Amino acid sequence: MKLKVFNQTGSNIGEENFSDKVFAESNNDTLVYLASKKYLAAQRQGTHSALTRAEVSGGGKKPWKQKGTGRARAGSIRSPLWRHGGVIFAPKPRNYDLGLPKKAEKKSIRVLLSDRAKEGKVIVIDSIIIEKPSTKEMTSFLKALKIEGAKVLFVLNPYNRKVYLSGRNIKHLNIKESANAYDILNSEYVVMTRDAAKKFEEIL
Fold it and tell me: Residue 127 pLDDT > 90, yes or no?
């Protein structure tokens, strides 16, 4: 797969060959769905908790006798039907992580990178150098690449804190050292340094 390589000023400085295994993978919507679902499930804290009728204090005594009062029969004041009663099927702390083989996760990333590459939405840059954090400089960089305002995933490898600080206040710009399937799916363009592209080839 040949991808165009740009410099920091947005000028095309040529093309470079990258692995077809990473940037020309066949489509697999089911795998992408499962990988995204796994990521979103892992974001859930799972700390929700409520008390069942067995855990609510009180309710040991039968409120009134079974028959003869004219009222509905009741065995406990902590019945879920009563005020201050327990909760039916009360939620309890749990882990929402979903199992997905590592090979499947890697393939889902390859599928999405390939999809963006086919659309011409994978942008490889030679390098980016920012002397001091500057949102203005990062905005100019996005303008030069003609992707200002779009949802952009910027993959930096090695990670550069100055670049991160320059772009963290820009809406729809997500700067990361690596990326998962959901990050790529949730972006229109994937911008990566040449080193990051090589790292993807090595890992995937």
Answer: no
